[in-house]
Amino acid sequence: MTFDLTPTEVLAGLGVLMTVFVVWRAGLRRARRAADAARSGGRLLSLGGRVLALAGLIVGVQWLVISHPSADPWLVLAVLGLPALFASYALTKALTVTTSDRGGRR
Fold it and tell me: Can you give the residue ranges of every domain in the chain?
């Protein structure tokens, strides 16, 4: 089986292949950008939910210990001091970040 193609037909075929390739690459880039944006937004909401849940747990335990009539002063100090230490560590670490979380090529 033999094909007789003119140079115009060959160039048209190469042009179609090149156009398909360029459109395919653009779609990949657009999909990658959308996935990155969705991932970062989900990360923020997930972190916010965990922070609120843990804060609620800490406040509940503090309220339970402080409202108890025979609360030992050392227990009250521990219940109020330990979360303050963890919060100060987390804030210090969050405010001294020197690298970005972006990966991949630009």
Answer: 7-95
Q: How many CA atoms lie within 13 A of 81 on its CB side?
A: 6
d(CA 3, CA 1): 7
Contact yes or no for 66/79 (Cβ under 8 A): yes
- Residue 54, Cβ neighbours under 10 Å: how many? 12
CA dihedral in degrees (17, 23, 24, 29; nearest 10)? 150
Say what the pTM is: 0.44
Residues 56-66: pLDDT tens digits? Answer: 888 888 888 88
- The pLDDT tens digits of the residues spanning 13-38 come to 899 999 999 999 998 888 888 877 77
Q: Give long-range contacts, CB 8 A cutoff, 24+ apart: 53-61.
A: 58/83
* Pair 65, 75: CB distance under 8 Å: yes
